[in-house]
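Entry 12.
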Amino acid sequence: MARARSEKVTGEAAVMDFLRARAASEKEQFQALKNRTASTSMAREHVFFDSLDGVLKDVFGKLKLPHAGYAAKKLQKKPMDRIVNLAISDTHFHSMLDPREVPLAYGPQEEARRLGKIITDACEYKSQYRANTECFLHIFGDIIEGCLHDPREAATMTEQFGAATYYLIQAIQALSAAFPKVSVRCVPGNHGRNKQRHKDRATSQKWDSFENMIYQAVKFAVASLPNVTVEIPYTPYYTYKAFDKTGFVTHGDTVIDAGFPSETINIKKIRNQINEWNAGDATYDLFLVGHVHTGSIVHIPSGPVFMSNSCLVPPNGYAVSSGRSHTKCGQWLWESVPGHISGDARFLDVNETHDKDKSFEKVIRPYHGFESTLP
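Predicted 3D structure (tokens):
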């Protein structure tokens, strides 16, 4: 490991030396040129390489990424006999809810502290078994508010993108330091869709979404963490193995129609859809969706477990206008062991009490625009 790290540092230094030499060479040529058009082009290229030199210094200087709150973990190759699953969906980052209009505020402070509480709970879950426990992080849509109902009701898409990327990177940092291995899997939801491409529900190429752009940025940012893998499929769902069992995850607005947010979860309809998916060669033991903003676990008569996740965001203007003024906010955490894909399950509750607890900012810092920096 030490040798690989040394080779990496040497390689990065070589890249930096090459770019500096290239910039110096271009600068000399620039001074010698008389043609105005060529000089303009050369000046632009010189500025580019000069800026790139600074960017590389920032990136390579900061991209160690273990979170200060936990001891860094090295990748273990021995088999794990426990999996801690953490569901993250319907966070609706940077919704910027105004408490003058709706029951609760939900801005940078509240969203960071709520996610910080969830990640803290996951990192501290059954720590006595940590050496043999892998973490599965399920991220399955509506990570941002998007611009579906009103293009002015939330932060700009640039700010939403920045906030979501910033929070997810920090969450993975903390989990990677607390667990020997972290496997991250991602699918988009309906709020992350690009309405220029999909005006209504995305029934084709759902992967062409703002949220998949966020997931890719996060994947590249955490690539230096040796015990983390990130998977982003082209399908609007993903499947995964948990020992001898198989799970199926989708957002819940398509593929499996789970119901309407905070209103209905039609078990009969869900049962028929699950039976349809399990009618083929592949069978699934657990189905996980978001979208409905209601946490539930149902044991389907035919055998599979159905789970719906809740949300981090409190009721927004759209919800209040429909008569929904309260939401039981939180995210699911559950344990998998050989023979049981869903064992001990805990609903990690978040509320306005956690919104006031600044200690959670030690795990997840609030996003404050372009000035934000990683720990």
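Annotation: Helices lie at 2-32, 36-62, 108-124, 157-178, 210-221, 267-277, 317-321, 352-355. The chain has two domains: 2-62, 82-371.
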